[in-house]
Amino acid sequence: MIKYRKQLTALFLALGMVFSAALCRGIQPVRAKKQAGSDVVTLRVCNWEEYLDLGGWDEKERIELENNVSIFGEQALYHDFEQWYYENYGQRVQVEYSCFGTNEDLYNQLSLGDVYDLVCPSDYMIMKLMAKDMLVPYSDAFFDVSQPHNYYVRGVSPYIRQVFEENEINGESWSKYAAGYMWGVTGMLYNPDKVEEAEAGTWKLLGNPKYKCQVTIKDNVRDSYFAVLGMLKADLLTSNEFLSSADYGQRLTEELNDVSTPTIQASEKLFQQIRGNIYSFETDSGKADMVSGKVVASYQWSGDAVYAMDLAELDETYLSFAVPQECTNLFFDGWVMLKSGIEQDERKQHAAEAFVNFVSRSDNAIRNMYYIGYTSVIAGGPEDSTVFDYVNYCYGAEDGAGDTVEYPLGYFFSGDAEDSEYMLSTERQQCKRQLFAQYPTADVISRSAIMGYYTDEKNVELNQMWIHVRCFNLNQVPKPVWAAVLAAVLVLVILLIYKKLQKH
Amino acid sequence: MNRFRFTRKQLAIPYMVFLLLFVVMPLLVIIYFAFTNGDGQFTIANLITFFTNANTMGTLVYSAAVSVVSTLTCLLLAYPAAYILARGPWKHKSVLMMIFVLPMWINFTLRITALKEMLSVLEENLAYYPFWNTVIGMTYDFLPFMILPIYSTLVKLDDSLLEAAADLGAAPWQIFLKVTLPLSVPGIVSGVMMVFLPSMTNYVVLDMLYNSTYIMGSLIGSYFSADDWHNGSMIALILLTIIFTVSVVAGRYEDENMGNRGGALL
Hints:
The structure holds 2 protein chains of 2 kinds. Chain A is of the alpha/beta class. Among the domains of chain A are: 1-37; 472-503. Chain A is built from 24 helices and 18 strands. The longest helix of chain A is centred in the last third of the chain and has 25 residues, at 479-503. The radius of gyration of chain A is 26 Å and the shape is globular. By secondary structure, chain B is an all-alpha fold. Helix content of chain B is 77%, strand content 0%. Chain B is built from 12 helices and no strands. Chain B has helices at residues 13-34, 45-52, 54-87, 93-101, 108-123, 130-155, 159-167, 172-183, 185-201, 203-208, 216-225, 229-265. The radius of gyration of chain B is 23 Å and the shape is globular. Residues 261-266 of chain B have low confidence and may be disordered. Chains A and B meet through helix 1, strand 11 and helix 23 of A and helix 1, helix 3 and helix 11 of B.
């Protein structure tokens, strides 16, 4: 199937290229000269839109941390990388930076023959690419902790490292092929003036008639299906027997990756109910609608929730974030190198690995976090306190502030949940706001599950279910309406025929 | 040595190339996908699926309902406006007309965003009336396309015909029904064509106004993003056939009417 599509598309593209090449013939020689003149490695990076600091900061935005690190984004991070790489390795690299919109778009682009060296898809797409053997493993040098420039292995959070090592595809752990970038959980962004915390802390909020037409859900089948699974299986997921079972984590992951036909059918029924109860299926508008007050709660990824809370605060509106008690989806995006791009070119692979390390350097991780609102997987390692200082800079309580609590961040920064070094003294409300969304507490992490990728068959089934939910159901039309429409059409036809006959 | 002679025909070559690359080629690709299955073999299963699947039939009915209601609303709003503009005692008709067409100069997503805010205030919650919001959005978007052709037929209307009808004793309403309206039918037909067909597929309006029900355009998109190029292409092809049929029928009707007009003049 893919083969034919490729050929057709290739033919189509080729014709287009001939056409445009004919137009650009005058320009081409100049470009060729520039390429041949210097020995430059080209690194083709494809990332999510708005997912890397592009610089251009205002001087007011400069971040001065306690450990005397000063962070400022002057130009795009990949331009900084080009300079940094030349200074350290004496080799010129040119980064061709481009963006994709969804994981599926990226996958389609790749299967249509687009070539990239380094891409940053989400968890399940990494698994799919691994399973299809499309990735290049990171070299041994990348994992060498003694190398000062290996910022990724030296700085990655022990918690994320564990997740990447424990999970396997075809008997190989993810950590061999993927380096984490950003991570988060899914939950409910809500307006605490309108919605009780307890009501927001469950997926059942989506079907709660009290908030009819005031809650939004995601307009993609994976995220929405996860929420509906949480609703369907709420009783099981919150039962004592389930929570206290020895293999709780594994069972949770299994339950939330349940794509058996009866479950899909049950979810469709629930979707039909939810559909009448929600405000919209949204991809981007939910944040703005929360800030403007059109809706009172919105299903969001934690990073987007942080962004919306920041935005609302400018209008002195304080939103909160809750993670449903049943379960939450732990997601992350990671850097993977593609076989089709790297093609065993060692210089290219070196540059790609260096790029990952460069964006993993604590100050660069902070630049990205500041710019996009998501949480970097980088903790900085035992010697480097930059990231923790940044969290303190953002959310730490002012000296002498009244109602403060100790917020444990040890699970992320050192791997020890009770680590006293990583206790953040913060204002009480931050436990429900940005800090909680950016670094959820350990109990949230314990009820989180990763969604895997589905087989093509199951994808088709899920998509069909989704399309069915979104299409107009003819059974909804009452019989009198059908009769009226039929009568109208009949009258029209008779009238036309009558007119025709009259003419002759 | 070939002597190159430049002829007028060759001026059409750029357009031909454009047509070939961006109209004919994609069309062929659509036809190919529509009549093949996942293994690249010929099949008419996609065609049968279209007419037996509850999704596609439901969407077809819903899209048609949106289109018909939007077109009727447009017609009801546009005809009086065009009539007043064309037959009224105005001095600078073209300026007035420009004011009516002015909204078209503003980007349409911007207009719909503004409309969204207005409707939110008026209805309190957009999610209560998704169908009517869509109709209002489509009407807002396509109204100038209905006014323009009706206006241009009405403004060309021969006054002597109306005077003759009045002299022969017809009341004003009779003149309108027996003379003005039949003579403006070509304008109405092309206006209807310009509103009816795009409003069947313009799903951006639905998306922006939070109508979660798919119409034809969004259904095709959802099949494509679900990696089902074959059924998606079939839906696109059938939609194309519908549009083509409607255009041909409407074109014929117009021709017939032109003939009638000649008769009426005698």
